[in-house]
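new request in #modeling-help
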Amino acid sequence: MMKILSFVFFAVAVILSIVASPSSSPSSMFNSLVTSSASDNPFFTDDFYRDACPEAETTIRSTVIELFIKDRTIAPALIRLVFHDCFIEGCDGSVLLNATNGEAEKDQIPNQSLKGFDVIEQIKSRIESVCPSIVSCSDILVLAARESVYLSGGPFYPLRTGRRDSLSSFPKTALEDIPAPTDPLDSFLEKFSRRNFSLGETVCLLGAHSNGEVHCNFIKDRFSNFNGTGLPDPTIEQEFLNRTRAKCELDPTAFVDLRNEGAEQPGFGTHYFQGLVQNFGVLPSDQELMNSEKTASWVRAYASNQFLFMNDFSRAMIKLSEIGVLTGPQSGEIRSTCSAINQ
Ligand code: HEM
């Protein structure tokens, strides 16, 4: 009995350390949270900038905090930005590039409402002033998103650094592969599965929608003309439907809270999943998770277990932040401005 109790206490302590504050040593959480496959790479390590630019991570953290105090919406904007970067050809800062010839990733429809580019540029210019041409924009982005998750009430997770920036933008892939809010369930699950995310990891990552906002135009059809029927999506909870439809009809350019209008709890958390169980999902793709038992069972698991969600979200964000990284002197470059490749 004592053995079982001590095991339970140990397991709780480990989970607590994972969801603990940034003051917990990242390296002590590191082994428990990262996959071993990339650990042999000397160009992609824990605290890669320790000697070359020791100010890097603290400058990122202090700038994100400073800007977050003035405007809390930068946090969800940066979390969305890292997803749109890493999902397309890996975490290489390609989403940050401006078009030079034709269109860039950021000009494509799924990316036109992205925000936070100015925050990344601001951090980059502060870092360049202390250690020029050392810290990549792709590392700045994943680290700034990590700070944003934590500031929004989510977990703090360890991240390796040493990413380098891409020499191109991938507009066609962005157009085809960023999931749309109207995608059927199997279609967006397939996009995640191609990037090696399991069902549980995909459902968990969508928990990022517990925080942030959505333009009415992404959801208006769901509230009045679902799938061309001229009627609302029949699964929407009635009061929520009335409230949200009235808000969007009054001002079609308005934003609706992504975490769902029924949720009491602000910021990051399991209320997103609780909302889906009650048909309060805002994006059609979010509510789709309840349309199949294979994803609904994960939604219910996260809805009822905050530790499970925080722990799995940390792992899923680490995995997202390590997709297709460019490392080593032969790959990519360290941009001096995040919106343009070096001349
Ligand atoms: C099926 C997959 C997904 C779809 C269809 C989707 C779609 C969307 C849409 C349409 C918006 C609203 C954008 C706007 O109105 O400006 C949004 C916002 C957001 N998304 Fe996703 N998303 C998906 C997955 C993810 C993932 C995996 C993450 C992060 C890990 C994420 C993070 C966010 C955040 C934080 C916001 C709020 C942005 C803000 O308030 O500025 N999304 N998403």
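bot summary: The radius of gyration is 20 Å.
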